[in-house]
Amino acid sequence: MANETTVLVVDDDQANLESVARIFQKMGLQTLTAPGGRAAVELLRRPEVSVMVTDLMMPGVDGQELLRTARALRPDVEVVLMTAFGTVETAVDAMREGAYDFITKPLKRQSLERAVQKALEKRALVAENRALRARLAEVGGAREMVGQSPAFRAFMETLEQAAPTSATVLVLGESGTGKELAARALHQRGARPNGPFVAVNCAALPEGILEAELFGVERGAYTGAVRKEGRFERAHGGTLLLDEVGELPPSAQVKLLRVLQEGEIERLGGTQSVKVDVRLVAATNKDLRKEVAEGRFREDLYYRLNVVELLIPPLRERREDVALLADHFLRRYAAKNSRPVRPLEPAALQLLEEYGWPGNVRELEHALERAVVLCRAEAIQPADLPEPVRKGGGGSAGHIVISIGTPMEEIERRVIHETLRHTRGDKNLAARLLGIAARTIYRKLERREPEDEPPPTAG
To answer: N or C: which end of the chain has fewer CB within 10 A?
Structure first.
């Protein structure tokens, strides 16, 4: 039997231990059994163990202590708890400590089978993602977007639909959310991934230099000028990203509109048009509708750019992704700095999940790089994190502040987001805690409009 189907069962009740092991054996899974927490620790060191199913209440090393040990020794092992004390507090504590799921006693065979099968599927998916990221890194240090939250999946679904087309895409999002990564993903999933990908930051170049960079220069256009191709010509047959497009000066906006209408450019100082075949992606953290209303951005250009709008959710709206992103960055910077890959202490992970991340994914990335460099223990400690993260956003975890007069639909959405954060994205557990069906969570999250205010951080 394949190693990835080995389940470790832990229970001080011998009859229950044997009964649960038989259930998994009938599923075609290999099993290991341990009569208590101490014996289980030794078996956890075996590389074939992929899922551990453990009783919560045991003498000596109990289930929660064993869970914490598993997080330190084998963070790749998924843990399912069996408990007769299925309270909300126990469920939330277990999930925040890193458990995949919990099952209440008396045990039901169907529930056990389903929980372990889902845990195995998650582990296989995570392993596949890690292998893919490793292969991407080997072939050029590629950087990719990571996430599995509902908000992130909705964003990626739109990206996947837009990528194979030639439509111009407007990528919107706060600073640090990964707008350039989104543009690269559009290029890589597009019709011509082998063509050039060219990016220009419109905010980083003065007006005169910006136009020369975009459209090119003819010899003699100004004193000392030599003929030079612009970014549009360099991106011919590929993708051009205009980052911070909201900073384009009026003169450049007029020329860009012509490119979109006619598919041709004219170099500075030139008299002939040059045809260009470019897939254009524009990105900004500005509200371009407001810029149009206030006369700073051309309305006709806005509609030309906004054929497909791609809104990247801020990290505070996808807290379920924090743990996955943290693991991604820890591995990247451990390899970059020739350091061992260290897991996060539960307390450190809790701080990461509760912080507001005003700098979004970029701020999280920098925090994890710092932690990799400074960590001297066996796991990343709270002290290894930046001071703003350690101090957090104030208030108590598990609470949200809602103003009087907030619409009921908005209140429901915020409560769902906060509950999902506590359950680390497990919608089935969140539904159980809220006393609703899982499909209700999907339905209410799907109703969210892009203009909605984000859910508040814990406070």
So the answer is: N
